[in-house]
């Protein structure tokens, strides 16, 4: 559940209008800025090194992989590593499994979480605040506590090695996503709902036709985080999916073995493949994700 | 009769009432919470008090599992030690580094956005893929990237993950991996910093505060709620670390050997729980482990909140 970590949430409101300070162009300030950029550049270099190394190693054969001194630019490039991983090592199949699970999770999670969040943000009912606190509290529960009993239950009803244990719970909304949606819905003007209600629009239609179309930023943020969460999930699939047929991409990586020799460069190629979708997804949703941290105001 | 005609009180069916509708909308979550939260939690607690034999007949044993784990399980003792070091080390990295990076990026300058993206993106990639990547980075001998880097300073290659004399090196590598994933906390700190009204910094500047005083007296106190939030989230995340230790402990591709690493030096709560529950199928023991892990989470969270209460002063700002 390391994913709790990377989910941005902020405790602060959007920045108030900053008073424009005239920055004095003195040598000290300039020196400070240079030091700042130098420190950040060094750190980013350190950060990027393993990833550049990874790409380099993924394009080699085993001899090149272990060559000392190290070659940053492989000669020759072995592009076959990628096609081999995808076609000979069954990764096409694993990617297919992971992809449809992730897309399902995105669609279902957006619908169910926004539905529940609508209830929490637009209706008054006894116990609402207490129940919302329970939603937040469930984020603290380690999922593994429940997994053990759920595993035994699924085994009784014959769901082991099927996708049901990963699909069904998504229908009921997820705590963090409900929280994100609720915060966003609270910021939407109620006047529009009111107008729709007076025009005879029911609450269900208000949710679908009024609230959701206004919620593009939060929908994108939830979509990206849900996709990433599903794409990298290991614990659940490891326990529930026992057969080779149902393996997801993380399981394919975990059980990576080489029937054809020279496995390490292939493993590196498989890692590159599995890291591409998250990076692309972030690039697409970046504008919204950066703003998304301001959506979650916990105060 | 008059009621029905009164325009102030339109007749409403019971399911049109606001409260009822509210419950209808949250009912999916409520149902899911009962089925996938409360019920398995209770079942897990019952399981943790029992022991199943090979014929799957379940016997109630009271607190035996807990007692054995806490007093008579040398593996668990090693793991508890690992976890203490790992959680403290990793949280210090996540919070310290995240805060430093946020402070560096707080000032606007050209290229700020590029740095922020480069630092943030790796934290989105955490998982078994990066775990295997860093396993190769911390490979022993001259081939590993970490050793290649250290050789620039004339250091002999370190056998990070398989040194029989210094098994703790593996734990150090496991902690160091978190340097690459500090971007998540960084982004939240950055949002927190942007929420501090600029007038506070200006007032401090006018009063002649230096950069250090500014940090100690303005930034840190006003940022403390964000620090507390980030620390709690980091603790919860680090206690549940799973993929990286599992990958580091794997010898070869398949899950062979001891998934807890050489002399259990890479054992964490979740890998041990996985081994006990799903490799040895001892569900009672695994459930008890899960509850002990949960209790450890609550204790550490409580400790952070208590410390925060003692050492931060939320109300001080308006005394100025």
In short:
In chain A, 68% of the residues lie in helices and 0% in strands. With 299 residues, chain A is mainly α. Chain B has a two-stranded antiparallel sheet.
Written overview of the protein:
Chain A: Belongs to the binding-protein-dependent transport system permease family. Chain A: It is found in: Cell membrane. The complex is a heterodimer of chains A (299) and B (320). Chain A is mostly helical and 299 residues long. Chain A contains 15 helices and no strands. In chain A, helix 5 packs across helix 9 and helix 9 packs antiparallel against helix 12. Chain A is globular. The N terminus of chain A is likely disordered. Helix content of chain B is 65%, strand content 2%. The longest helix of chain B is centred in the N-terminal third of the chain and has 33 residues. Chain B starts with a helix and ends in a 9-residue tail after the last helix. With 320 residues, chain B is mainly alpha-helical. Chain B has a two-stranded antiparallel sheet. In chain B, helix 4 packs antiparallel against helix 11 and helix 6 crosses helix 12. Chain B is globular. Chain B has 14 helices and 2 strands; from the N terminus they run H-H-E-E-H-H-H-H-H-H-H-H-H-H-H-H. Chains A and B meet through helix 1, helix 2, helix 5, helix 6 and helix 7 of A and helix 2, helix 4, helix 5, helix 6 and helix 7 of B.
Structural class of chain B: mainly alpha
Our count of helices of chain B gives 14
Task: Name the strands of the widest sheet of chain B in spatial order.
Answer: 1-2
Share in helix of chain B: 55-70%
Brief descriptors of the model:
heterodimer; A: 299 residues; mainly alpha; 15 helices; globular; disordered N terminus; B: 320 residues; two-stranded antiparallel ribbon; cell membrane (chain A); Sugar ABC transporter permease (chain A); MetI-like (chain A); transmembrane helix (chain A); transmembrane (chain A)
